[in-house]
From TrEMBL:
Its EC number is 3.1.1.41. Residues 315-352 are annotated as: Disordered. Keywords: Hydrolase. Substrate binds at residue 83. It comes from Catenuloplanes indicus. This is Cephalosporin-C deacetylase. Gene3D superfamilies: alpha/beta hydrolase. Residues 3-311 form the Acetyl xylan esterase domain. SUPFAM superfamilies: alpha/beta-Hydrolases. The keyword Hydrolase applies. The keyword Hydrolase applies. One of its GO terms (molecular function) is cephalosporin-C deacetylase activity. InterPro entries: AB_hydrolase_fold (IPR029058), AXE1_dom (IPR008391), CE7 (IPR039069). It is an enzyme of class 3 (hydrolase).
Length: 352
């Protein structure tokens, strides 16, 4: 298979748009609470945020921003964790805030117990009949776990836009693996997203991955359906509402993808299926592939590409005075200091 040109004929349910419009419809304020928390970091301020996710369920997140610019409006990066990982500690994910962005790290409901340092958000909508969240409620799109989590992810973008000190017109979505799948879904459901950065996205070309991948999380679905044979047709129907390829077709934000060509967790075919379906012929998009890497992809080497790419499209520069945030206000350390230099745009396909 020439993976770089791979496209997938992913079925689209006839009520796909209505399903997601109904899922995302939620009256009332999105922000529930914003509280400053100690993080033992002198240059970064962190806040414990709670926002209303699917069904109004409270979803936790860490909101961080450079402490020396607490009185200005900044662009924001919303980040989504990988499968089995929660938001952890406030001092864990510091790349984007260190680059000068406001940063919201969403906790994933019902997750956080596999690796990392845990999470703080239960899933009130879950009725688990197996130990794997990826299978919870898979018999119907209405009850499926990822209906709730994808809705939470979209609501996270709305939440960060409502926070003091954030420019609502400059918000990017970022994620790796499960987080990449969530960010891709957000790009398909939030038409005015400013930018998208995804690496090895999960839940792309799902039917193909289930037939070719024997590692988790896809293998968890396979193991479940090996026992619940009667649910197989319904499960495939449910998953068709969650496929990243379909979300990619609807997305328009500038996008930077990454994949390891030896990835046996989220195969590169799925990433390229989403990338090749993404946007239209004039869409600003690029992909970096790493021939000798697996699920780690380009790792921190690729993060350097991401930083350069996002700086060129959404520089971490203030937009003006911001409303008061809880905690101290320190002002600019160097008033009038120039922002970071622009970056050279990479080719649309880059084999690194």
């Amino acid at each position: 298979m020439n993976v770089e040109h791979y496209t997938a004929d992913v079925p689209v349910p006839p009520d796909f748009d209505q399903f997601w419009a109904t899922s995302l419809r939620r009256p009332g304020p999105v922000l529930l609470s914003v509280e400053p928390v100690p993080n033992r970091l002198r240059l970064i301020s962190t806040f414990d945020v709670s926002f209303a996710g699917f069904g109004g369920h409270p979803i936790r997140a860490w909101y961080s921003r450079p402490s020396f610019v607490e009185d200005v409006v900044l662009p924001a990066v919303v980040e989504f964790p990988g499968y089995g990982r929660g938001r952890g500690f406030p001092h864990e994910r510091l790349t984007w805030v260190s680059a000068g962005y406001a940063h919201l790290l969403m906790d994933v409901r019902g997750a956080g117990g596999r690796y990392g340092n845990g999470g703080d958000t239960p899933d009130p909508g879950a009725v688990p009949d197996a130990p794997w969240p990826v299978t919870w409620g898979i018999g119907s799109p209405d009850t499926y776990y990822y209906r709730r989590v994808i809705t939470d992810a979209v609501r996270a973008v709305l939440a960060v836009r409502a926070l003091p000190g954030v420019d609502p017109a400059r918000v990017a979505a970022v994620g790796n693996s499960q987080g990449g799948g969530l960010a891709l879904a957000v790009a398909g459901l939030v038409p005015d997203l400013a930018a998208l950065l995804v690496t090895a996205p999960f839940l792309c070309d799902i039917h193909h991955c289930l037939s070719t991948v024997d590692t988790s999380p896809y293998a968890e679905i396979s193991s479940y359906l090996a026992v619940r044979r009667d649910l197989t047709p319904a499960a495939y129907d449910t998953l068709s509402y969650m496929d990243g390829v379909t979300f990619a077709r609807q997305a328009v934000a500038p996008a930077c993808f990454g994949t390891g060509l030896r990835d046996n967790v989220c195969p590169p075919a799925g990433t390229y299926a989403a990338f090749n379906a993404y946007g239209g012929p004039r869409t600003d998009k690029e992909i970096h592939s790493y021939p000798f890497n697996g699920h780690e992809g380009g790792d921190t080497f690729h993060v350097a590409h991401q930083l350069e790419w996002l700086t060129a499209r959404m520089p971490p520069e203030p937009a003006g005075a911001a409303p008061d945030l809880p905690g101290p206000r320190r002002g600019w350390p160097r008033p009038g200091a120039p922002g970071p230099p622009g970056a050279t745009v990479q080719p649309q396909v880059n084999n690194t």
